[in-house]
């Protein structure tokens, strides 16, 4: 029972990441009708926003200590982060909380990247076939990935989480079990809550604002909304920017869990496409539900008890689920009729 | 007999001319590629092999419009089967090819049976899912069959039943042979080239046959075909299996020119590459995918052989500061064209010296190839180097 609960919890954070990426993919697909293979790269760019932010605020001045020597006999180097020398203790806090604070950097950066991508390249491919859209966005993803590799190198760069959130929460106590029965790392819990908050915000935005109303109307019938004199293209561009921000934030907060490297995006891309299709192309709740479902299934499949019965199941569970769902429910769990069918 | 042979080989005048020209172009490859700096056997073999892969992919994608994103799985199955045939039966290439084609055909039948129930992007995702499953399993649970991360390779203790029944075990690792004749120099390339020509001929026949017409009709309007009373699924299924067999054939040829099969051949980026080749050359045309395959393989090879100094030389006309930038960018792009997974490159580096120890190498005659080191990002020549022609 406890093991099952523990796996359920373990699946939540990964599921949160899948759900966030799939949500963005579905937004882009639902609004612009574009199959965006560069979406994984946006996740990766978000992660590198966190890396860049940390590298910026940990720029150091190096002075040589006149008296002390290091154990090797060389003069001892004193490294003072500039942030600390400028802002004092507050600089230390900045460095400590670099990952959550990089959200502030990531939001404008990702929005600009997203909108530039849409206006610069993707806009020219609305009327082309999906195969061509896949090709051009795939190429874009490779270019972005290689740029990141050129700037940050090929090795993963680990990002420390704030020390407050290190260690694990004793979830068992909250549920009325004994202490240390069921623990869950604080950061994973944070990630799950963060993901739910973002998902909630996106849904609320679409549901309760006029802008969201117009966008939903545009998703249902773009032509009519255009005829009513609304500049729907501009709103869809903004939605692309929003999708980029969502993917970027998912990436920022994911960095303490998995040190980001340049092919992080590609690793998540295929999975998030599978998530979108399992959820049903064009269905936002479907993407979220499928994201969490697959995340949880994956963590269940990696239990040793299950692996001893079905060896290798942890490697294929996501794809296997996708195959079964597609064969049993052709349009995915929540898919609508006529979407992406020739 | 004469009648069937006549219909079997009957071609329109245009097809015949295309075939003759294509034959001349392929067989003359060593000549016209040498001014381009690509006339060494290793690369030309790849040209022939990936042309077969793209040809087969085009029979499915070009004719029926079904975009498979998992064709690399069949390539991998073909490679593994061929290496196993070398290990268990004989170093002769004929059984290796036959087994590889049959097994990848069966594999395609199983995957196609399920995947073809859906169309459009759902079909693509299904094939992608099957291929990724194969890839992940090849790396993990199926290690006894695939040898996992270290790749399946020949071994001094292989049973090789047929070979050893007729001749005593010779020292060192054997090489692939055709009826007892071991390939040397350009022979392996010419063997691949002849296979390519046969594959091209079959593709031509398919394109011009009523069956090919039926596949085109599926692409343009499957629903109408169904209403007209055709069972389109079985036609699409046949196309899928044929193109899977082409991929298996290409995979077995990869194993013949270099008896080693790794799971990375099945990764989805490899499937993406053949899609890229086909679209680059022209979907649905007969010759297009072949050209696309050649272009991609050529540029991949040429660019990955570029190193810092070659680039500096090449961009010598650009002002100094700018040149650094250009060279840096070019290098980044050249390294591992789809630089997603550094493992194959690293493994390839480790592999090269080992090959020479076994005294083989004729098939690998090519200029020293520069491999990028994934850790530092610098290009370096592998220790021991390639064998210069």
UniProtKB/TrEMBL annotation, chain A:
The chain crosses the membrane at residues 15-35, 42-59, 101-122, 134-152, 191-215, 236-257, 269-297, 309-328. It is a multi-pass membrane protein. Its main location: membrane. It is found in: Cell membrane. Pfam families: BPD_transp_2. Keywords: Amino-acid transport, Cell membrane, Membrane, Transmembrane, Transmembrane helix, Transport. InterPro entries: ABC_transp_permease, BCAA_transport_permease. Belongs to the binding-protein-dependent transport system permease family. LivHM subfamily. This is Branched-chain amino acid ABC transporter permease. It comes from Devosia algicola. The lineage of its organism: Bacteria, Pseudomonadati, Pseudomonadota, Alphaproteobacteria, Hyphomicrobiales.
């Amino acid at each position: 029972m406890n093991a099952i609960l523990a796996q359920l919890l373990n699946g939540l954070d990964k599921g949160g990441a899948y759900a966030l990426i799939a949500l963005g993919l579905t937004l882009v697909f639902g609004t612009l009708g574009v199959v965006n293979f560069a979406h994984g790269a946006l996740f990766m760019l978000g992660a590198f926003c966190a890396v860049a932010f940390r590298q910026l605020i940990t720029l150091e001045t190096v002075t040589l200590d006149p008296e002390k020597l290091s154990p090797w006999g060389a003069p001892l180097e004193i490294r003072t982060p500039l942030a600390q020398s400028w802002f004092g203790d507050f600089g230390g806090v900045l460095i400590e909380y670099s990952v959550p604070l990089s959200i502030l950097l990531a939001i404008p950066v990702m929005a600009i990247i997203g909108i530039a991508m849409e206006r610069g390249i993707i806009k020219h491919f609305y009327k082309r076939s999906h195969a061509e859209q896949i090709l051009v966005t795939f190429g874009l993803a490779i270019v972005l990935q290689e740029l990141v590799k050129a700037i940050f190198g090929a090795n993963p760069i680990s990002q420390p989480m704030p020390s407050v959130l290190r260690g694990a929460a004793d979830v068992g106590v909250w549920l009325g079990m004994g202490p240390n029965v069921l623990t869950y790392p604080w950061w994973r819990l944070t990630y799950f809550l963060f993901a739910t908050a973002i998902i909630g915000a996106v849904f609320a935005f679409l549901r309760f604002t006029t802008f969201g109303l117009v966008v939903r109307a545009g998703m249902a019938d773009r032509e009519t909304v255009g005829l009513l004199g609304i500049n729907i293209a501009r709103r869809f561009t903004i939605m692309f920017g929003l999708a980029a921000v969502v993917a970027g934030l998912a990436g920022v907060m994911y960095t303490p869990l998995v040190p980001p490297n340049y092919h992080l995006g590609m690793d998540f891309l295929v999975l998030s496409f599978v998530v979108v299709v399992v959820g049903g192309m064009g269905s936002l709740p479907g993407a979220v539900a499928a994201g969490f479902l697959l995340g949880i299934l994956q963590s269940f499949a990696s239990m040793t008890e299950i692996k001893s019965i079905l060896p290798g199941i942890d490697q294929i569970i996501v794809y296997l689920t996708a195959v079964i769902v597609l064969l049993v429910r052709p349009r995915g769990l929540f898919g609508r009729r006529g979407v992406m069918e020739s | 007999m004469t009648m069937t042979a006549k219909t079997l080989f009957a071609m329109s005048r245009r097809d015949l001319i295309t075939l003759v020209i294509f034959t001349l172009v392929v067989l003359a490859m060593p000549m016209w590629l040498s001014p381009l700096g690509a006339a060494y056997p290793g690369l030309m073999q790849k040209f022939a092999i990936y042309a077969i892969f793209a040809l087969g992919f085009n029979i499915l994608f070009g004719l029926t419009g079904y975009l498979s994103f998992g064709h690399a799985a069949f390539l991998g199955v073909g490679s593994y089967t061929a290496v196993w045939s070398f290990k268990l039966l004989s170093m002769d290439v004929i059984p290796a090819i036959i087994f590889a084609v049959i097994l990848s055909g069966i594999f395609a039948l199983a995957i196609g049976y399920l995947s073809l129930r859906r169309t459009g992007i759902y079909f693509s995702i299904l094939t992608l899912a099957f291929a990724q499953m194969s890839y992940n399993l090849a790396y993990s649970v199926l290690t006894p069959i695939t040898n996992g991360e270290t790749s399946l390779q020949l071994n001094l203790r292989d049973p090789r039943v047929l070979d050893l029944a007729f001749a005593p075990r010779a020292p060192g690792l054997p090489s692939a042979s055709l009826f007892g004749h071991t390939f040397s120099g350009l022979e392996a390339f010419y063997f691949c080239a002849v296979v390519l020509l046969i594959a091209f001929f079959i593709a031509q026949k398919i394109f011009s046959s009523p069956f090919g017409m039926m596949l085109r009709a599926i692409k343009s309007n499957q629903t109408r075909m169904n209403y007209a009373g055709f069972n389109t699924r079985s036609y699409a299924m046949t196309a899928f299996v044929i193109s899977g067999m082409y991929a298996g054939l290409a995979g077995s040829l990869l194993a013949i020119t270099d008896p080693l099969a790794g799971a990375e051949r099945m990764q989805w980026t490899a499937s993406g590459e053949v899609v890229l080749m086909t679209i680059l050359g022209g979907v649905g045309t007969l010759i297009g995918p072949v050209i696309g395959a050649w272009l991609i393989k050529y540029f991949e090879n040429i660019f990955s052989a570029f190193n810092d100094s070659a680039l500096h030389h090449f961009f010598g006309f650009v002002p100094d500061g700018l040149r650094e930038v250009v060279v840096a960018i070019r290098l980044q792009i050249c390294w591992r064209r789809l630089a997603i997974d550094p493992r194959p490159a690293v493994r390839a580096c480790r592999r090269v010296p080992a090959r020479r120890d076994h005294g083989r190498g004729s098939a690998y005659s090519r200029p020293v190839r520069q491999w990028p080191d994934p850790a530092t990002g610098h290009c370096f020549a592998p220790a021991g180097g390639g064998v210069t022609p």
